[in-house]
Amino acid sequence: MSIIDEEASYGYEMVSKLRARGLSLASEGSIYPLLSRLQKQGMIESYLVQSSEGPARKYYRISKPGQVALEQWRHDWSEFRDSVDAVLNGDDRG
């Protein structure tokens, strides 16, 4: 959702952006089921855009509930990452 929070994108474009950022495990086969689940949950919305290269492309954008959830996930990830760093670095946070 962070990718489409930056800019509405279609599935293959998202896979390319994820791979460019080092997530080589991202594939079209894994992203489309995820996009479908996120849409059913109301986290993202889709719309069609005509393409000069073939059929219309389905673009996805983040919804307001999705933005709220993404901010919470970012916060949770930051806390988790900091805790893991503390363990790996032998820091006592308590």
Concise synopsis of the structure shown:
This protein is an alpha+beta fold.
The CATH superfamily of the domain at 2-63 bears the name Winged helix-like DNA-binding domain superfamily/Winged helix DNA-binding domain
- CATH architecture descriptor text of the domain at 2-63: Orthogonal Bundle
Mean pLDDT: 94
Number of strands: 3
The secondary-structure class comes to alpha+beta
Strand order of the largest sheet: 1-3-2
User: Percent helix among the residues?
Assistant: 55-70%
Radius of gyration: 17 Å
For the sheet with most strands, the description reads:
3 strands, antiparallel
Poorly predicted runs of 5 or more residues: none
Secondary-structure element pattern, one letter each: HEHHEEH
Distance between the termini: 33 Å
- CATH-derived topology of the domain at 2-63: Arc Repressor Mutant, subunit A
Strand content: 15-25%
Number of helices: 4
Overall geometry comes to elongated
Topology of this structure?
Blueprint: H1 2-6, E1 9-10, H2 11-20, H3 28-40, E2 44-51, E3 54-62, H4 64-88
What does this 3D model show about the protein?
- The protein has 94 residues and is α+β, with helices and mostly antiparallel strands.
- It has a domain of 62 residues: Winged helix-like DNA-binding domain superfamily/Winged helix DNA-binding domain (Arc Repressor Mutant, subunit A), CATH 1.10.10.
- Helices cover 56% and strands 20% of the residues.
- Strands 1-3-2 form a three-stranded antiparallel β-sheet.
- Helix 2 packs across helix 3.
- The longest helix has 25 residues.
- 13% of the residues are buried.
- The model has no long low-confidence stretch (mean pLDDT 94).
